[in-house]
Amino acid sequence: MVLKGLTERELRAWRTSFEMLELLRTRIEQQLQASSGLSNADYTVLALLSEAPDRRMRVFELARGAGWEKSRMHHQLTRMGKRGLVIRERCGSRGMEAVITADGLAALRKAAPSHAQEVRRLFVDRLTPEELDQFAGLSATILDSLRADSSPG
Amino acid sequence: MVLKGLTERELRAWRTSFEMLELLRTRIEQQLQASSGLSNADYTVLALLSEAPDRRMRVFELARGAGWEKSRMHHQLTRMGKRGLVIRERCGSRGMEAVITADGLAALRKAAPSHAQEVRRLFVDRLTPEELDQFAGLSATILDSLRADSSPG
Predict the structure, then answer these.
(1) Which of A6, B43, B82, B106 has fewest C-beta within 10 Å?
(2) What DSSP string describes A17-62?
(3) B153–A27 C-beta distance less than 8 A
(4) pLDDT band at B152 (very low <50, low <70, confident <90, very high)
(5) Which CATH number fits domain B36-116: 3.40.50.1220, 3.20.20.70, 3.40.50.300, 1.10.10.10?
(6) B58 near B95, Cβ under 8 Å?
């Protein structure tokens, strides 16, 4: 079935890219789960919070940094809160903030080295340095325009 | 926190690429859900089955085509089965097959045109034709090596 509105070439480009992204996510998560019990989503939240000033971020900004909808981030924070990895705190008129706990920071530090190795093995080392720069540059172009685009949802 | 084992440049390339992918998936799914009630996962399964001979595939091959683990595909097929979009059938010694139903095909056909428009708007049209070919080519390189790699999980 050809998607109306896309040429064969465009459809192939989209499918190859989307399938690669799905498989890469799957593989990265397999290693993360096996070595640390963390999902890709857990890791993303912990990494973003660990690098923020005072290790806390507004939920709105955290969702933006992860590329998720705010409702998805709230669900994720609820699950991580139950496991003691993060807490949420109300911050006056500024809404909710998420804060990484000592346990969350420890989990991140334990997971990071083997996660980095897997990112290198499955992604970084599959391309030449020039190709990696190209891929990141094109990703940045798409990311910038996605961010500039007001969400239809 | 710098991931040990990755240089700053490599880490930036990974994060930009991963964040773009997360945001792109989110946006594409928002439009799909709003217009048709289908998730990205639903759409992927329906599209793969609709193009297969006799509109059926072994669950193993379907999972491979989607870039997922087999267990994830079984969970997905259970949910889609409850909604009448697919059925699963045992096929002798060849294991389980998934088949798209008439309702599944109708749902796919209804969703396809606006989905294609959104893929064009958010991805295809953000790059020049040359950049799109570049991106797809690099994605294919990574995809091929991911497939050749035996899963650690």
Answers:
(1) B82
(2) HHHHHHHHHHHHHHHHHHHHS--HHHHHHHHHHHHSGGGEEEHHHH
(3) yes
(4) very low
(5) 1.10.10.10
(6) yes
Bridge partner residues of A86 (DSSP): A100
> Which is nearest to B77 in space by CA: B152, B95, B149?
B95
CB contact under 8 A, A10 and B120: yes
Element (H or E) spanning A84, and its range? none
- Beta carbons of B120 and A120 less than 8 angstroms apart: no
Q: For residue B50, which residues of chain A lie inside 8 Å, CB to CB?
A: 1
Q: Which of A31, A119, A152 sits opposite B6 (nearest CB)?
A: A119
pLDDT tens digits for A25-49? 999 999 999 999 999 999 999 999 9
What pLDDT, on the 0 to 100 scale, is given for residue A103?
97
Residue B47's pLDDT band, with cuts at 50, 70 and 90, is very high
In angstroms, the separation between the Cα of residue A101 and the nearest Cα of chain B is 15
Q: Which parts of chain A have pLDDT scores under 70?
A: 1-4, 94, 150-153
Option in A22, A50, A113 nearest B5 (CB) = A113
Give ipTM to 2 decimals. Answer: 0.86
* B126, B128, B130, B133: best to mutate for the A interface, most A CBs within 10 A: B126
pTM: 0.85
- Nearest by CB to residue B22, choosing from A13, A67, A112, is A67
